[in-house]
Amino acid sequence: MALRARYTINPDKVYRIVMRTLNTSASALEVLGPPLTGTDLRAYVMSGGGLKLKNFKPMLGSRRCFLLFPIHGAERKGLVSVEVKKKKGKVTV
After folding, report:
1. CA gap 40, 44 in Å, rounded
2. Are residues 49 and 60 in contact, defined by beta-carbon separation less than 8 angstroms?
3. Please, are residues 68 and 38 in contact by the beta-carbon 8 Å criterion?
C-alpha cells in the first residue's frame, strides 16, 4: 500500500489541489469572477511510471497526469488544463 501511494496519482486529489489554487489566485478570480466552481465532468490521462535504464541501473520513471475540466465563475466560463508530475513521492503542478 505504501509503494502504491508513493507512485500513483489520484486525479480527485489533483482536482482539489487545482481548485484550491484557483480560488486563492487573484488573477483567476479577477477574470472569471468569484466564486469559482468546477463540474463533475473531468478528463484525465495517466502516463509514465515505467521501468527505464539510467547508467545501466533500472529506475522507475516519474508518473504524469494530464487533467482537463470546465470551470465557471460569476462572470465567465473557462477550461482548465493541468499537467501534474509525481517524482520521488511528491506531486508538482
Report:
1. 12
2. yes
3. no
What's the pLDDT at 70? 95
Handedness of CA 28, 31, 37, 38 (dihedral sign): negative
The helix or strand, by DSSP H or E, that contains position 59, with its residue range, turns out to be strand 57-60
Quick one: cell of 67? 487533467
Q: What is the mean pLDDT of each run of 10 residues along the chain (93 residues)?
A: 73 90 90 88 86 82 88 91 82 74
45: cell is: 490521462
pTM: 0.77
Alpha carbon distance 83, 92 (integer Å): 9
Distance CA 23, CA 46 (A): 25
